């Protein structure tokens, strides 16, 4: 585990959740997360600051570690084959259970860290992972507060309208986003029964680039994702409102400083996450909050 693991964020999972903010820091500081589906969860004490919970303007930051055994399909198949060779009379169901049991004993533990921002003003929780394991971590977190009000944000293509927004941009130079910069790059997709086709369209600030995209849209292509930036921090937003492929301009330099011998690591870390939180607030304001106003949320717990 490196210090830089506590600032990593290349993808963004966003959830609507109403935590009781009057005692949120104390509750999380004292929280013991339950194990779930053979995964151990823990709210970590930050190795640079010595704190679990970091207070921000209108929010907090903390990190959760998930510890688990990485059982891959290939490992499970190999171990199941070994068990069958030892005892041909073992039933298929028992073979898999025995294989899992042996692998859990043999494999060394793996771990991953989920960095979490919670915006108390919008009640949005933002986490650097969208996996099933990360969502299980969130479900254990919610149990600490006795709350079940966690909802993932779902929005229809008609409401999101990235294809329509791009069309208006290409035809009338209508800005796609207020408060964010469009990097003049889009990935388009076209699906039918037999195949899926993808097309990368760059330089959409030039007439040649625009013409290529216009022609593709006329031929039935739709927006798969758009490349956006804010203060040199770049990311992609797709037609399902997922934010991914995030590039933070100060990450590499900050990671080197945090992993090095500098004495000012607590200050460096605090400064970085405060700037990152400010950027995330702006990104969610002009994408998720703008597009989903009035839309329904879908419970996943």
UniProtKB/TrEMBL annotation:
A Pfam cross-reference name: RdgC
A biological-process GO annotation: DNA recombination
Top-rank lineage group of the source organism: Bacteria
InterPro entries for the chain: RdgC
Protein name as annotated: Recombination-associated protein RdgC
């Amino acid at each position: 585990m490196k210090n830089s693991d506590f600032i990593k964020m290349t993808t963004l999972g966003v959830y609507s959740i109403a935590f009781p903010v009057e005692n949120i820091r104390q509750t999380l500081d004292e929280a013991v997360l339950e194990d779930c589906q053979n995964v151990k969860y823990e709210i970590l004490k930050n190795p640079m600051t010595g704190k679990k919970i970091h207070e921000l303007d209108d929010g907090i930051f903390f990190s959760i570690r998930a510890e688990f055994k990485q059982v891959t399909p290939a490992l499970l198949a190999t171990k199941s084959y070994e068990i069958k060779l030892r005892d041909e009379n073992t039933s298929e169901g028992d073979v898999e259970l025995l294989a899992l049991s042996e692998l859990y004993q043999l494999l060394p533990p793996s771990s991953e860290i989920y960095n979490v921002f919670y915006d108390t003003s919008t009640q949005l929780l933002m986490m650097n992972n969208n996996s099933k394991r990360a969502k299980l971590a969130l479900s254990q977190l919610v149990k600490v507060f006795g709350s079940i009000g966690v909802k993932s944000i779902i929005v229809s293509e008609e409401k999101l309208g990235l294809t329509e927004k791009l069309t208006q941009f290409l035809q009338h130079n209508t800005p796609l986003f207020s408060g964010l910069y469009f990097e003049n790059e889009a990935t388009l997709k076209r699906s039918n029964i037999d195949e899926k086709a993808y097309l990368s369209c760059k330089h959409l600030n030039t007439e040649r680039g625009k013409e290529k995209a216009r022609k593709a849209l006329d031929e039935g292509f739709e927006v798969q994702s758009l490349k956006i930036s804010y203060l040199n921090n770049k990311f992609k937003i797709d037609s399902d409102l997922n934010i991914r492929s995030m590039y933070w301009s100060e990450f590499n330099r900050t990671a080197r400083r945090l992993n090095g011998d500098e004495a000012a690591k607590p200050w460096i870390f605090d400064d970085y996450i405060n700037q990152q939180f400010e950027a995330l607030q702006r990104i969610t304001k002009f994408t998720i909050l703008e597009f989903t106003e009035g839309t329904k949320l879908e419970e996943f717990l």
